[in-house]
Structures are given as structure tokens and as C-alpha cells.
Amino acid sequence: MAKDIDWDARYAADPALWGEQPNQFVRARVADAEPGRAVDLACGNGRNAVWLARRGWHVEAVDISSVAIEQAQQRSERAGVHVDWEVGDVLAWTPAEPLDLVLIVYLHMEMPELTGVIARAATWLRPGGRLLYVGHSRTNLTRGVGGPSNPEVLAEIADLAGAAEGLRVLALQHLLRETEAGTAVDILLEVTTWDGPEPTGNPDPGHLKPPAP
Ligand SMILES: C[S@@+](CC[C@H](N)C(=O)[O-])C[C@H]1O[C@@H](n2cnc3c(N)ncnc32)[C@H](O)[C@@H]1O
Description:
By secondary structure, the chain is α/β, with parallel strands linked by helices. It is 28% helix and 27% strand. It has a single domain, classed as Rossmann fold, CATH 3.40.50.150.
């Protein structure tokens, strides 16, 4: 998303911006994983981080919007779980310890910055840890609904392939997401390190269908 978005104002105006539920593709990819240490980069007001914490993960979650982090704190209190929330910039923030999981969900920045964030975050993984990026794709501009209208902040397959250089790619694909306004075209990258155990519980594409209403 463009640098000119006033995220504090957006969250203050609508705390229910992204809903209560975790992103459906995160849920499909992570639900079967053994809990460990996770970071949710650009966590917003915490729907994915709280979902992870409820499943037993130790979660650090970072966002540039202090209003979002305040709302996220309230969300984790309501859920009765602990998350280490932090106001921070993904371009500079680093975790204290190696990680089993990095989530980056609907973070949109101009391409060299976004791919740089993904590549840098992948260096934080323990052997066998996984990084998951989910975003609106550039293809969404012509084939889908919603999301940013600036093509420069929307990733395509080649951009994410570049970010994954040197990593083991588990998934790199477009995914269709049904919304009230129509079908959105998302993009997903999942990577792991080359030195970990053989990944298990890697769902087949059938698992990525939206849950039945
Ligand atoms: C579309 S929201 C997605 C929030 C969350 N990941 C989710 O899926 O619910 C994008 C988020 O990126 C955050 N963001 C944008 N630029 C950032 C930066 N440089 N550092 C940290 N967070 C940033 C915004 O504050 C916003 O919460």
C-alpha cells in the first residue's frame, strides 16, 4: 500500500476493517503445524496473530500503526491469550530469536521494498521454519475486485520468485478469494530453508478453497 495511507485514521474509523477471522489461506497452510515461535509482520489489529496464539504459538506481532496495535492488544485480552505486540516499521524491525514461522499478510509496498522485507524476514527462520506471504496480486487489477489500485505496490509471480531466491519454494501461486463484492485474485508465496526436515502437512490445493458458508 502506498506510503500516504493514514493507517491510524483507517483503524480509528473502522476497527472491524479486516474482520475477526484469520486469513483463510493462512488458516489452511498453518492449522496443522506444530506451534513454535512466530512473527506476524504488519499484523494490523491482530486477527492472524491472535489466531496463532490461541493455537499455542508464541507470537510477536508488529505494525506501524499504534492505533492498530492498541486494538490488537484489546483483541488478545478479549481472547485471553498473550501476544508480544509492538509498534514498528517492517523495514527496520528485527526479532530477538530465530523463528518457526513468519507471516506477512496483505502488506503492500513498492516492489524493491516488499521483496526486500520478504527476503530479509526469511533470514530469521530456523532450519525448517516457514515464511508465508499473502497479498493482493497485480492481476487483481484486471481480473479481481478490491485491494490497492496502484500497480507498483502489487506483487506478481516474478516479483515473489525474486524474493525467494536461495530459499526452498513450497508454493507460489494465485489464489481466488470470494468476497461480497466478487472474486479477488490473491497471490501466495510459501518458502522454507533448505537445511530443515522434509516439510509435512503441506496441504494440497484443494485445501485452499474458501470454507463453505
Ligand atoms: C491491509 S493491512 C493488513 C493487516 C493484517 N496483516 C491483516 O491481514 O489483517 C496492512 C497493514 O500494513 C501495515 N503497514 C504498512 N506499512 C508498514 C510498515 N512499514 N511497517 C509496519 N507495518 C506497516 C499497516 O499499518 C496495516 O496494518
